[in-house]
Design the sequence.
């Protein structure tokens, strides 16, 4: 797991306070809930005081026991987004909220309303995070309305010497809840843009959930004398959230631009490719992304100045690409560590102090 991502989480709290003041709950209702990641124990605040839209508050009141899973889902999603994009120009990070002028830079402010590929990824990874955390909680026996997948208990293939057992993750309840909690009905406005954007957001939410379902796998354990596999018990399990993040990153890289003119259903923007169907697991976007090179305070884009880059890499983390051709600064970082440690009889360890230097490059 990315340590930097974890360390960045507390910063959300500070942002959150500013955010709440900026957008009264409900206005940006479909993503306000992400802020729950920054509450230690959201149960203590009560549903009414959490950054939720009215539908979500209603759901929260009916099922308050789901709050820890909602928080965990938001945390999973944010952390995975940062980890998947840590080497890219857009690194799923918000503008460093410094000083009163910038204090109100919202969490993913621009990306959540802009209909870009980045918007698509955020929606998908967040919807997936919620499925994952709720399902975990079901399997852990923490919930009365869901548990392990009971449809499997009597099946299996006795002739091949295995049977279903243990606890199979049942994603159905998690999928249901993620839909209920996140999928706002398509806004019935005359403004065409916002209708297309809400349809695209809904699609991407579902694509995220489909990724969790698609990556379900089967784990088995052998029982029998001295490790022989005379009896085998198998159960279905969700993949690690990191794997799901990888799949979604791949979908992001192959995401499809759709036309901003909505017909009966969404269509590819590229006229030559209209015949190729859009699958429910594809990520969709409407607008081209900015290049994320330079800071734009208004859009909450921090730019890549000061980001650490890799001088020898040809990839997105290479100084050339990451710094957008502006060049980079180099400074030397001195490490001091204990080394050449020897055990001395008896009984202590004696070490030398070793110094090493590494070059660190940061974008101009
Ligand atoms: C289940 O509930 C226990 C006790 O409240 C908690 O410690 C644990 O983290 C929960 N597990 C999951 C997966 O939600
Ligand atoms: C949307 O609004 C129009 C006109 O205001 C109305 O006729 C239509 O039934 C509404 N559709 C939905 C799904 O609410
Ligand atoms: C920099 O990139 C090169 C080539 O991709 C890689 O081998 C190396 O480990 C990277 N260095 C760091 C510090 O990430």
Sequence:
């Amino acid at each position: 797991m990315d340590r930097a991502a974890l360390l960045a989480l507390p910063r959300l709290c500070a942002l959150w306070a500013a955010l709440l003041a900026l957008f009264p709950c409900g206005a940006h209702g479909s993503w306000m809930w992400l802020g729950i990641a920054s509450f230690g124990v959201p149960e203590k605040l009560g549903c009414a005081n959490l950054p939720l839209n009215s539908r979500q508050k209603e759901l929260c009141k009916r099922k308050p026991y789901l709050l820890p899973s909602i928080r965990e889902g938001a945390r999973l999603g944010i952390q995975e987004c940062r980890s998947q994009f840590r080497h890219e120009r857009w690194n799923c990070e918000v503008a460093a909220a410094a000083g009163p002028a910038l204090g109100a830079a919202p969490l993913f402010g621009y990306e959540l309303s802009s209909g870009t590929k980045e918007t698509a990824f955020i929606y998908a990874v967040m919807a997936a995070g919620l499925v994952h955390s709720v399902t975990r909680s079901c399997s852990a026996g923490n919930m009365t309305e869901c548990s392990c997948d009971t449809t499997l208990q009597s099946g299996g293939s006795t002739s091949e010497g295995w049977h279903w057992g243990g606890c199979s993750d049942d994603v159905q309840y998690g999928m249901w809840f993620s839909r209920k909690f996140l999928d706002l009905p398509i806004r019935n406005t005359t403004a065409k843009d916002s209708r297309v954007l809400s349809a695209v957001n809904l699609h991407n939410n579902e694509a995220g959930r489909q990724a969790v379902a698609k990556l379900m796998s089967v784990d088995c354990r052998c029982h029998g004398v001295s490790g022989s596999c005379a009896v085998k018990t198998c159960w279905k399990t969700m993949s690690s959230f990191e794997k799901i993040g990888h799949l979604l990153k791949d979908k992001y890289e192959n995401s499809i631009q759709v036309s901003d003119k909505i017909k009966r259903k969404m269509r590819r923007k590229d006229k030559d490719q209209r015949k190729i169907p859009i699958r429910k697991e594809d990520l969709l976007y409407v607008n081209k992304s900015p290049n994320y090179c330079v800071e734009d305070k208004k859009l909450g884009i921090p730019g890549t100045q000061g980001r650490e880059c890799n001088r020898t890499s040809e990839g997105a983390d290479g100084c050339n690409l990451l710094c957008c051709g502006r060049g980079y600064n180099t400074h030397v970082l001195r490490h001091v560590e204990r080394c050449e440690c020897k055990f001395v009889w008896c009984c202590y360890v004696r070490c030398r102090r070793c110094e090493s230097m590494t070059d660190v490059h940061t974008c101009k």
Q: What stands out?
A: The chain has ten helices and nine strands. The chain has two domains: 54-95+106-150+165-221+238-303, 307-363. Strands lie at 156-157, 162-164, 217-223, 231-237, 256-257, 284-285, 308-309, 328-344, 348-363. The chain has a mean pLDDT of 82.
